[in-house]
């Protein structure tokens, strides 16, 4: 299974894999939200400014029987429309 297919399988379709590596026998897939997909999760406006990001680690379903972790860089976005600073939408594998 290719990397692209595997992240689709996780429901991370709008996040792009930026890196993948092995860490103590665990397959780690690093994902990032592409800039063109960034938008306010409150009002949906695309006029946003990046205000740093937070890294979230989640355990994903095993890929090819291998323990898999997702490392997701979730940007914080300031919206020029509603003036709120919100976290970008995360892939639906991320709880909460
Ligand atoms: Zn907004």
Structure description:
The chain has 96 residues and is mainly beta. It has one domain (3-87). The protein contains 1 helix and 5 strands. Strands 1, 2, 3, 4 and 5 form a 5-stranded mixed β-sheet that branches. The radius of gyration is 14 Å and the shape is elongated. The chain binds zinc ion. Zinc ion is lined by residues 40, 42-43, 45, 79, 81-82, 84.
Layout of SSEs?
Layout: H1 3-9, E1 16-23, E2 26-32, E3 48-63, E4 66-79, E5 85-87
Parallel strand pairs: 2-4
Antiparallel strand pairs: 1-2, 3-4, 4-5
The site of zinc ion has 8 residues, from loops.
Order of helical and strand elements: HEEEEE
The helix/strand class is mainly beta
Count of domains:
1
What gross morphology would you assign?
elongated
Low-confidence stretches: none
Main sheet properties:
5 strands, mixed
Helix content: under 10%
Topology, number of strands:
5
Overall pLDDT score: 82
Cα(first) to Cα(last) distance is: 28 Å
* Cofactors, ions and other ligands in the entry: zinc ion
How large is the share of residues in beta strands? over 45%
Question: How big is the Rg?
Answer: 14 Å
Observed structural traits:
96 residues, mainly beta
Quick overview:
This protein is mainly β and 96 residues long.
């Amino acid at each position: 299974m290719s990397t692209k297919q595997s992240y689709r399988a996780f429901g991370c379709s709008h996040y792009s894999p930026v890196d993948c590596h092995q860490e103590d026998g665990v397959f780690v897939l690093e994902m990032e939200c592409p800039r063109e997909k960034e938008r306010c999760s409150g009002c949906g406006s695309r006029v946003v400014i990046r205000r740093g990001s937070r890294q979230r680690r989640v355990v994903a379903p095993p890929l090819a029987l291998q323990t898999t972790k997702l490392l997701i860089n979730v940007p914080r976005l300031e919206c020029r429309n509603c003036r709120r600073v919100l976290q970008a939408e995360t892939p639906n594998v991320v709880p909460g």
